[in-house]
Each structure stands twice: as structure tokens, then as C-alpha cells.
Task: inverse folding
């Protein structure tokens, strides 16, 4: 049988394959059914491959989303740590500033008490001027400058 020899010609050649017309039609019908089944199988296989590719794509997107979520969580932890560090630094600054102010006022008041006890007018005036200089200067002015420097990314002040 040559490659160009059509199977239907072979099947219809009564000398090679003796069948009647009805048998011939049955065989052709069965061959067509098998052909359709194969076509359906190929189509189903293609659809299964498409579905598998879609699932693989969705899985890849899911993995990327999980990685982005982890990165965002880590970024959040870093930002929280930075915020806590800023708070603690500001708290330390404020405690230090007000602590120094308290110490200065305490010393000036102690000096005033001694000046009053000794009735030393010059010492009384000096201690009152000292108290006045501490009281009139706002510790928050220094804090505002500190915050400006602290929030300026070009400054390396306390850069963690």
C-alpha cells in the first residue's frame, strides 16, 4: 500500500476487502466516530493544558504576592522600630532638657536662699537674673530645632 493510497479507496475495493454497501457505511461511520473522539480528546487535552498553565500562572502570582506581603511586613517592622527610636530619642531629649532646666533653677533658688539669708543684695539680684534667664527661655525652642534636624534626611544626626 503506498502513502498516497487512500484508506477509503482500499476499504471500497471489493477485491481486497469484500463488503457490502451497508457494512461499508457502518465502517465509515465508526471511523468518523473514532475521528471525532480523537478530535474531542485533542480538544480536551488542549483545554487541560490551558487550565494547567492558568493554574501555574496563578500559583506564581500567589507566591509573588506572599513575597510582597512579607516585604511589607518587614518594612512595617523597620518603620515601627524607627518610630520607637525617634520617640525614645525625643523623650530622652525632653527629659534631659527639662532636667537641666530643673537643676539650673534649683541652683539659682539655693543661691537666692543663701543671698536672702545673708542679706546680700548683689547676690539676690544675680540669682533672680539667673532664674529669669532660665524661665524666659522656652525649652521647646530647642526641641523644635532638634525635630527639624532629626527629620531632615540630609542631616546625619543620629542616623541609625
Result:
Amino acid at each position: 500500500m503506498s502513502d498516497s493510497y487512500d484508506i477509503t479507496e482500499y476499504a471500497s475495493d471489493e477485491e481486497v476487502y469484500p463488503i457490502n454497501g451497508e457494512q461499508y457505511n457502518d465502517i465509515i461511520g465508526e471511523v468518523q466516530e473514532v475521528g471525532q473522539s480523537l478530535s474531542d480528546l485533542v480538544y480536551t487535552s488542549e483545554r487541560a493544558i490551558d487550565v494547567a498553565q492558568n493554574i501555574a500562572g496563578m500559583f506564581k502570582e500567589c507566591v509573588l504576592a506572599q513575597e510582597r506581603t512579607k516585604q511589607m511586613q518587614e518594612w512595617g517592622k523597620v518603620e515601627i522600630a524607627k518610630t520607637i527610636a525617634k520617640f525614645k530619642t525625643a523623650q530622652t531629649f525632653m527629659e534631659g532638657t527639662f532636667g537641666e532646666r530643673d537643676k539650673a533653677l534649683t541652683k539659682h533658688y539655693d543661691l537666692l536662699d543663701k543671698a536672702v539669708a545673708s542679706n546680700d543684695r548683689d547676690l539676690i539680684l544675680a540669682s533672680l537674673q539667673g532664674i529669669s534667664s532660665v524661665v524666659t527661655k522656652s525649652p521647646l525652642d530647642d526641641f523644635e530645632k532638634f525635630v527639624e534636624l532629626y527629620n531632615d534626611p540630609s542631616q546625619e544626626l543620629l542616623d541609625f
Summary: Residues 38 and 99 are 90 Å apart (CA to CA).
